[in-house]
Design goal:
Distance between the termini: 79 Å
Number of domains: 2
Radius of gyration: 22 Å
Structural class: alpha/beta
CATH class of the largest domain: Alpha Beta
CATH topology of the largest domain: D-Maltodextrin-Binding Protein, domain 2
């Protein structure tokens, strides 16, 4: 009897080990404010993958400021895929040979299955009466933004502010003056999007938070509806959310097919619907139409319109010694 029991335990252990080795685990390294979206997305993907292949798969998540995440992957963090909020972070990895040099040709829409834009979150009732970009440079208004050196959220906020001047017919010199004034109203630079939200709502600092549109949904879920009001400025920027397979990792682990299936899933109607529920703009016109009340129309401009490209914007504005360093130093 004892011998039979031992064999049974051994069989169970062997079966468990076989299952563990058979189940593929992917790591998605992503930006700060996407964690709730990918939590729901991963659940849907696991079910879809099981239904389509009969195989089990697990997806782990890692979130922080997008640039910090890109550096972590470059330094050895074994991501199977990266899902970022600015193309420069993926270009950085391409430059290191970590992702393919033509990563933006591997999937539709320049490998950006979703987009977002920057808007303002103000305290309930909008006590400072903030309606547009010009209100952010008024005396006594404290603005919370992400450090553009550490997060794509911060870079997009900076470029949106700069572009708002250009969208009204202003020059780059006028845009520089405006952005310099804006950063004089920034009491502290956040490390990433979720850190910025924490500064605004948990530490109760600032009158307005400039962040991704998707944070409206996240804030309502985490802190309760009615804590903030969303203000859509007269113009803002299109922020693409690029994705890429991390060739270095998938070649080592043998997970290239699974990683591709995961990123392909982002383009399905099911995934696009999940994105929309989280306030992330879907590429699917049908899903966008379905959530028309969520995504209010506003004048949107692209990075290319006023900055040439994200790569050029990185060089001019965010590299060490660039425009941001000059303006922020002057502002302080």
């Amino acid at each position: 009897m004892k011998k039979t029991f031992k064999l049974t335990l051994g069989a169970i252990a062997l079966a468990a080990a076989t299952f563990a080795s058979a189940q593929t685990t992917l790591l998605n390294v992503s930006y700060d404010v996407s964690r709730e979206f990918y939590k729901d997305l991963n659940t849907a993907f696991v079910a879809s993958y099981k239904k389509g292949t009969g195989k089990d798969i697990k997806v782990d998540q890692s979130h922080a400021g997008s640039s910090a995440q890109a550096r972590a992957v470059a330094d050895g963090l074994e991501a199977d895929v990266v899902t970022m909020n600015t193309t420069t972070d993926v270009d950085f990895l391409a430059g290191r040979g970590v992702v393919a040099s033509d990563w933006n040709k591997r999937f539709a829409h320049n490998a950006a299955p979703t987009t977002s834009t920057m808007l303002f979150l103000v305290r309930n009732g909008n006590p400072k009466g903030i309606k547009d970009w010009d209100d952010l440079i008024k005396p006594g208004v404290q603005v919370i933004v992400v450090n553009p050196k550490t997060g794509g959220n911060g870079r997009m906020a900076y470029l949106a502010a700069w572009g708002s001047v250009r969208a009204k017919g202003g020059t780059d010199a006028q845009a520089a003056e405006f952005v310099s004034k804006l950063y004089k109203n920034v009491p502290v630079l956040a490390r990433g999007g979720r850190d910025a939200t924490g500064i605004f709502l948990q530490r109760n600092i600032g009158d307005v938070l400039v962040t991704f549109e998707s944070e409206v949904v996240s804030v309502d879920r985490e802190f309760g509806a009615g804590k903030v009001d969303a203000v859509h400025p007269s113009s803002s920027i299109v922020a693409e959310n690029p994705v890429a397979i991390v060739e270095r990792t998938v070649n080592k682990k043998g997970t290239a097919a699974e990683a591709k299936a995961y990123l392909d899933f982002l383009y399905t109607e099911e995934a696009q619907d999940i994105a929309a529920k989280h306030g992330i703009r879907p590429r699917s016109e049908a899903v966008l139409k379905k959530y028309a009340s969520t995504f209010k129309p506003l004048k949107l401009f692209t990075v290319n319109e006023y900055f040439g490209s994200m790569t050029e914007a990185q060089k001019v504005h965010f590299n060490d010694g660039g425009q941001f360093d000059k303006l922020y130093t002057q502002g302080k």
